[in-house]
Amino acid sequence: MTNVNITNIRPDFALITNWVNAKAKVLDLGCGDGTLLTHLHETLETTGYGIEKDDSNWLAALKNGVDVIQMNLEEGLSGFEDQSFDTVILSQTLQAMHNTESIVQEMLRVGREVIVTFPNFGYWRNRMQITFGTMPVSKSLPYQWYDTPNVHLCTINDFDDFCVQHQIQVIERKVITGGQDIHILPNLMGNLAMYRLRKHGA
Amino acid sequence: MSESNSVGIVKAQVAHFTQPLTLKSGAVLPQYHLTYETYGELNAAKNNAVLICHALSGNHHVAGRYSPDDKYPGWWDNLIGPGKPLDTNKFFVIGLNNLGGCHGSSGPSSVDPLTDKPYSATFPVVTVEDWVESQARLLDYLGIDQLAAVIGGSLGGMQALHWNIVYPERVRHAFVIASAPNLTAQNMAFNEVARQAIITDPEFFDGDYYNHGTVPRRGLRIARMLGHITYLSDDVMGEKFGRKLRHGDVKYSFDVEFEMESYLRYQGDKFAGEFDANTYLRMTRALDYFDPALDYDGDLSKALRRAQAKFVVISFTTDWRFSPARSREIVKALLDNALPVKYAEVTSDHGHDAFLMPDPYYHNIMRAYLEQIKV
Question: How close B156 gets to chain A, by Cα (Å)?
Fold first, then answer.
């Protein structure tokens, strides 16, 4: 695998590393150029695969030595057996999924644990922009309303409700802003939400 | 013509084998020969060999030309050569004509040394398994224990896959391109129509046409025309020919009226003039019979349990003869065995033929992966 400079790792990637066991078998959905998988492999000796739809990302992942499968997540994870991975990761992609509900269910089917991260739409800066009458545009939501791939943005409260409704157990939740942990008023103060999940009773 | 990255002028070689080969059918070939070509140099460690497995109508002439005025280079010349994705400065590339072929290896049209006449219809039916076995013996003959890679498209991909079932320790990397774990009923139906076209040709004489001084051209021609329809996508046919007329307006006849007809007839005629009908029958049968999961309760994952290579599986979006869904079946079996696999679904208009085209994304994948292989 290619050497990845740890200081250049996205803060959420660094935190994801804390939620993955050594030598775990990991599936990274929307793996991009494979930076996270490469990092996990180097730090925790994980094995596993990435899934990536985009040609140039796919090729970049290949060049990083990642075992990458080109497919569209919207079609589910039909090629993957039940509970065949220790951890399935979906980082900052949930909001761009059309079949949001089914991909979370699919992840819980394939993985013993699931890590989901997404930009918190309830973050105060987003709320401010709405209050002043425009759609939020920020570092974590860098798109204009007319060219955004994001179709299912949600707040931390929304996702908490989603988990309750779908009998999903939240093992751990972390809310961060600019790399800092947020403990007070997370739905207002948090920019990025990270969830470690499993099926209830699993 | 500037061909700085060509393997240049090449020459076919022949390897003779006198150790009998028992085929899957039970028939025995007491002796046989394989025609092959190589490009690049086998290194001292003998760990840079790449085997190219050909598809239905392919052969050992994979790259380069036989003479400077040779009209066409080998069939996968766009992939193979110095500086090309499969770089012959690094790899020692082997192409062979499979048993039963008609381009120099033992086959129906070659002379049976026991009778001094063409084998004709007596040449046995050969399978993918038989080919892999004969390829393994060719490697022994060349002094190669282990392949850096085995690469095949379509029927060639089936051979590449099968290598990992029978000789897993002899393969480090396997490329299974535009292929399938077996044929669908529809796919076998196309093969049956093609064979019927040949077998019912009055010039076929039960396969003994060499001794009757005839060639079942009509049957071969129709078989190839049918094949070409299935190798192209509807879109690319529409783009290439559409409803374009050959002569500007219709003639109310059964001569060539549409450009598409002209193309199919040209392809059919060309093929009928250079390919052997008995070989065509056997190649299509090899496709039909290939089903490695059959011996493992229909479970491809079990069939691949002993595999240890790293895999690259590639499919093409408009390939309906070997659709991406079929490649994903292979990928699933590899995932079930936790084998390293990279799977790409290349967006292409070219249908099944796409695996022979120099699509930039496709060739970038080949190049990037092959560059990573250590030799």
Answer: 22
Closest residue of B to A69, CA-based?
B343
Backbone angles phi, psi at B352, to 5 degrees: -65, -35
Interchain contact, B335 vs A59, CB within 8 Å: no
Shortest CA distance to B277 belongs to which of B229, B341, B206, B343? B206
| Cβ pair B171, B196 in contact under 8 A | no
- Chain A residue with Cα closest to B338: A48
Helix (H), strand (E) counts: chain A: 7, 8
Contact between A65 and B342 using a beta-carbon 8 Å cutoff: no
Backbone angles phi, psi at B168, to 5 degrees: -55, -35
d(CA A156, CA B117): 81
Q: Distance, in angstroms, between B306 CA and closest chain A CA?
A: 19
Distance CA A66, CA A39 (A): 11
Task: Name chain A contacts of B368, Cβ cutoff 8 Å.
Answer: 59, 62-63
Residue A4 has pLDDT above 60, yes or no: no
Inspect the interface and report whether the beta carbons of B338 and A47 lie closer than 8 Å.
yes
pLDDT tens digits, B149-199 = 999 999 999 999 999 999 999 999 999 999 999 999 999 999 999 999 999
Interface test with B, best of A70, A72, A75, A78 (most B CBs within 10 A): A70
The β-bridge partners of A69 are A51, B343
For strands A68-69 and A47-51, give the pairing: parallel
Q: Sign of torsion, CA A106 A109 A110 A113? A: positive
β-sheet bridge partners, residue A193? A118, A175
ipTM more than 0.85? yes
Q: Do A69 and B341 touch (CB under 8 A)?
A: yes
| A195 DSSP β-pair partners | A116, A173
**Going along chain A, which residue ranges are E strands?**
25-29, 47-51, 68-69, 85-91, 111-119, 168-177, 180-181, 192-199
Chain B CB contacts of A55 under 8 Å are: 347, 361
User: What would the DSSP string read from start to end of B171-200?
Assistant: BSEEEEES--SS--HHHHHHHHHHHHHHHT
Specify the pTM. 0.95
Provide the shortest C-alpha distance from residue A32 to chain B (in Å). 14
Q: At what angle do helices A35-44 and A11-18 cross, to 10 degrees?
A: 40
Confirm if B366 and B313 have CB atoms less than 8 A apart.
no
A70 neighbourhood in chain B, CB within 8 Å: 343-345
